[in-house]
Design goal:
A hairpin with a 2-residue loop joins strand 6 and strand 7. The longest helix is centred in the middle third of the chain and has 13 residues. The protein has 173 residues and is α+β, with helices and mostly antiparallel strands. The two termini are 26 Å apart. The protein contains 5 helices and 10 strands. It has a single domain, classed as 2-Layer Sandwich (Alpha-Beta Plaits), CATH 3.30.70.
Amino acid sequence: MTTALLSLGSNLGDRFAHLCAAVKALDDALLVVSGVYETAPWGDPDQPAYLNAAILVVSDSDEPHHWIERARALEAAAGRVRDPDRPYGPRTLDVDVIAVWGADGEPVVSTDPELTLPHPRAHQRAFVLRPWIDIQPYAHLPGHGPLTDLLRSADLRGQVAQLRARPDLQWEA
């Protein structure tokens, strides 16, 4: 059994519909989903704003790679096209595997280029950490510490100030 924290983002097409489709496709694994936040693009500013959310999921699979396979399938279903010249460019759906925990509750650490765990840039991204706090207020990013401390850091204060909660966007019951 593994539990994973996935980060969802979309800035092309019907952004919220892409997020909803991903959540619905993960219904068999869904534990909880965060609120939705609108955020400035990260790493490539010449693109529309994103909608972001976090989702906690569980699987009977003991294999952490199960989550990257699910993430890629969700992106493909949303019609995501990767542009090698713009690795942080616009996308219909982006699903990142942020952290995975084994059946014993211990975080999985991996340096595999296909699935580096925890996600190597999660600690630099308020759009990942803030939604995560919605669903696990006292969470720690393995190797980096409490999410609340990370969000209060000088490096992320500007990003946090630009996040906009979107309570008008509600997940279907």
